[in-house]
Amino acid sequence: MGIVVLTMKASVIEMFLVLLVTGIHSNKEMTKKIKRPKFTVPQINCDVKAGKIINPEFIVKCPAGCQDPKYHVYGTGVYASYSSVCGAAVHSGVLDNSGGKILVRKVAGQSGYKGSFSNGVQSLSLPRWRESFIVSESKPQKGVTYPSTLTYSSSKSPDAKAGETTKAYPRPSASGTTAQPVTLMQVLAMPAAEVNHATLPKPFPFVASATSSPRPQPLGHRSWEMDLWTTPHTSSNSPGAKPGFIPKEELSTQSSEPVSLGDPNCKVDLSFLIDGSSGIGKRRFQIQKQFLADIAQTLDIGPAGPLMGVVQYGDNPATQFNLKTHMNSQDLKTAIEKITQRGGLSNVGRAISFVTKTFFSKANGNRGGAPNVAIVLVDGWPTDKVEEASRLARESGINIFFITVEAAAENEKQHVMEPSFANKAVCRTNGFYSFNVPSWLGLSKTMQPLVKRVCDTDRLACSKTCLNSADIGFVIDGSSSVGTGNFRTVLQFVANLSKEFEISDTDTRIGAVQYTYEQRLEFGFDKYSTKPDILNAIKRVGYWSGGTSTGAAIHYALEQLFKKSKPNKRKLMILITDGRSYDDVRIPAMAAHQKGVITYAIGVAWAAQDELEIIATHPARDHSFFVDEFDNLYKSVPKIIQNICTEFNAQPRN
What we know:
This protein is of the alpha/beta class. Helices cover 29% and strands 17% of the residues. Strands 12-11-10-13-14-15 form a six-stranded mixed beta sheet, with helices on both faces. Strands 18-17-16-19-20-21 form a six-stranded mixed beta sheet, with helices on both faces. A five-stranded antiparallel beta sheet has the order 1-4-7-3-2, covered by helices on one side.
């Protein structure tokens, strides 16, 4: 009996196998007859980032115009997934700016991404990112099925083209503290088009709580350095759910966007001088702090953009934090929240002097090439004078902005130590540098116009720090060997240099001395205060003719020109000669150096180069120039200006 049953079971199994093979064969025949649908390439916009698309490998069509710098790209060759897909394609050379189809493949995150300029696109550097991608020509690989619709990480994808059908994984509920896990069974149950040929899809994004920070984590945060996958986890919100895997960086309460490098279109070094006096009160002090926090958020703080520090004043000023303390907006906002009121008087002038002398230094993060901006917030009016302190700040190249809140009423003006103090403090009285706010409740309305003005570096009249804070004395050789025609060429050279500077009573001032055996003051620093007047004065200088006593001319310029230079002004002497001096230049040149006069020696034709190096400030290679003909003088103008600015930016603030 047992043998019969066994034989019957074997027969049943054999029949089942025959039917199975027959069914598979029939299914294959039917598949051959069914015409495969034509593959449709999904289209995306230039601003779509690779990280928003969950598919591990896909072909897309990019539109024209993705070379625009507003579509940020991070890396070279291998790109961080925070990059614009189409921008990266243009940078890599796979596409040009007219658009087209590309193949995108996700790869592992890198420990660093190096920026470069390629094919009209400037990519940025990024220290670390969790996921990368590479771009190639849109040649499908054999055996790989590419999606006709893309799967985005958000159910409402603003990056998708209008009307495009997209798929999205649902986000977990925001209630509770743990994200819903992705179980292995859920992955196995996904359609093949969604899974593609990847082992696992990109994990579900974590929805942070309402208290989560909208800004990225600082570099070096612990969760960036952990392994990609955590141990299996079961959510308390889904009873019976199978264990799944959650990436640790997604469990962070921070956003997964990279740390911002800052807005490169607003590269300024910014100091806020906030009122901590007793008269402002706690409520208004809190409004002031909120205003600062909003400014910090709007500015997009970062090493490639604006940097911001805060000084609080009362009786005495104190730095709350300097330019290099916080390198992103979120850290800055957190620091602002922790500021406590100092109390005391409202000594604004003392605070401005403090900022001029100490704040904008290299040690405090001053970058040299970025404009220095100081924004002074005043409740009512100062208890000391601000005009002289502000003038010294401006002459150090600092752009002063004043925001006066609840200014003195008519019956209170008798208590104001310095009437019209705001107009006296700023470098222009056209309203660009000052705001008068009637009430603290209206302070927030000044935020947008203030940010716009601070970032408009072309309009910052006091921003060209190397060009607006010097007294420049030209010492011009008028000897017989120069000749009338060449002397006019020298004057044109002097005019070309002068044109590069911002000229006014409070900005750069120009003076000139001509010499032969004797010396003559053509015009002093206080004679002309506008650029047109200076250029006309240069044009009117008459050729003298005579010998060449350069040493005596340097001494004369020190006594008649630079002795009348303003305190805190940079003193620049630019000497032009065409021959060796009849007298000794060593002692006068040394005297100039000791008095802090930076001397540039320009030699033409028969000028002695060894003498030029003695006259020039050390190092001579940066301060002495030689041209073989007068007609070539103009060629040295850009280099002289560059050296003046480089030297200025390398010096600590006075």
